[in-house]
Amino acid sequence: MPTFVVSLRLPDAFNEEFIAVIPRHRDFINRLLNEKIVESYAISSDRSRGWVTMNGDDAAAVQALVEQFPLYRFLRGVEIDELFIFDSTASRFPHINLN
User: Fold this and answer.
1) What SS3 class is residue 4?
2) What domain of life (predicted)?
3) Residue 99 — pLDDT band, cuts 50, 70, 90?
4) Which residues are CB-neighbours of 74 under 8 A, at least 6 positions away?
């Protein structure tokens, strides 16, 4: 299954309505992490951008899933790029220590 990176542009300011949706959004992302649909999820330290690495059949399927994010209506922009290579320490076997 192809892997995609989704780049998110968050709003300049977080109002009460946005903040109230965050717990529901995190629950949704956690479910996708448990289902191995989302491989990684990150938000920049200045809270202006986010990146989600996702598995999906194609960009349209990933877009449809991103549109289900509870915070989707607040996003200022979404870019989806299919990855040729996605490698991470999380996807490797644990290091064996013979102690």
Assistant:
1) strand
2) Bacteria
3) low
4) 10, 11, 18, 21
SS3 for 52? strand
In the chain, the amino acid numbered 65 is L
C-alpha–C-alpha distance, residues 18 and 22, integer Å: 7
Q: Could you tell me the CA-to-CA distances from 58 to 30, 40, 54, 61 in Å, in that order?
A: 21, 18, 10, 5
Predicted TM-score of the model (pTM): 0.87
The residue type found at 22 is: I
Q: Distance between the two ends of the chain, CA-based, in angstroms?
A: 38
Q: Which residue has the tokens 């990176």?
A: 5
The tokens of 29 are what? 């992302």
Q: Which of 25, 47, 38, 31 is nearest to 90 (CA)?
A: 38
